[in-house]
Amino acid sequence: MFAPGQNMDTSRIVRDGTAESSRVELLQITPKLLAVEAATEKADEVPAELLTYQPQDYRIGAGDVLYITVWDHPELTTPSGSQQQSDANGRLVRPDGTLFYPYIGKVRVAGRNIEEVRTEISSRLAEYVEAPQVDVAILRFASQKVVLTGAFAKAGPQPITTTPLSLMEAIGVASVDSTSADLSGLQLKRDGREYSLNLDALNDRQSDLYNLYLKDGDQIHLPYNDRKKVYLMGEVGNPRAITYKTRDLNLADALGSVGGLNQTTASGKAVYVIRGVEDLEREPAKVFQLDAQSPTAFILAQRFNLQPQDVVYVGPAGITRWNRFISQLVPSAGILGTGASIKNDMKN
């Protein structure tokens, strides 16, 4: 019977043995299948080499601006005048890692921490100032930074300061675009290596992501979820493509988001998940079938996780296909009857 609309004939996959059918593997969604799938899923573990990194004292670099205070000597502390903004009296670290200071001349500061710079300036300034009391602070941090790109409201560079910068703090400043971000696809690039991290794991307060600190040169990319979608077709309440931002989307949630199975037209035995492969010539695509008429179907659907680009198809019930066939046939029969009547009238 040829009826309008979509229909999946799984008997061809199992029986006919053609080249087309050999490229597709039909699998029943059962507790055993779910156990196998769960065993192959990757845990949300943060790589050990990321967690072992601990920030050290901040090292001054080119582009930083220092504010050097010499107590009781305003001519050295604020040479541009106390009425000027602090930046006007700051000391810029030059590209060669040095700065100029009155009396003592060029001072190499790049690669040193604040205390080391303070000690050298105090020592050298003692030749010109009696018992100098020197303090050093960093007005502007520019030499060390991380860069955040992708689905952030405030993407761009963030400076690393004397306070260690954690991944969570950097993401908090950048602010995730929660409507379009793929939370499970965060990428951290460090020292030529890329690490995949799952931000959705932050729902667990024990997540190791809270203990991850960033270092100079780190690149963080949060992809958009516009390509992370599944397609729901056939006899469902509202056939459409849906996007999701977490790592997992189970079959029950996907069906529920489109109104579930159409109660008047759907076949409970014809719930399929079609999953393609990159090379169909070498590896068969998979079609997973769920018997939604089974009492355990809801449990199985909740535990069966979909993957991006999966197609969820719900086939029509037999009576639905028959009614559609009849609805297509009746107008045709009416047209044939009308034509016969006209022909008879022309003969009379």
UniProtKB/TrEMBL annotation:
InterPro entries: Poly_export, Poly_export_N, SLBB_dom, Wza_C. One of its GO terms (cellular component) is cell outer membrane. GO terms for molecular function: polysaccharide transmembrane transporter activity; porin activity. One of its GO terms (biological process) is monoatomic ion transport. It is a multi-pass membrane protein. Residues 317-341 form the Outer-membrane lipoprotein Wza C-terminal domain. Keywords: Cell outer membrane, Ion transport, Lipoprotein, Membrane, Palmitate, Polysaccharide transport, Porin, Signal, Sugar transport, Transmembrane, Transmembrane beta strand, Transport. Belongs to the BexD/CtrA/VexA family. This is Polysaccharide export outer membrane protein.
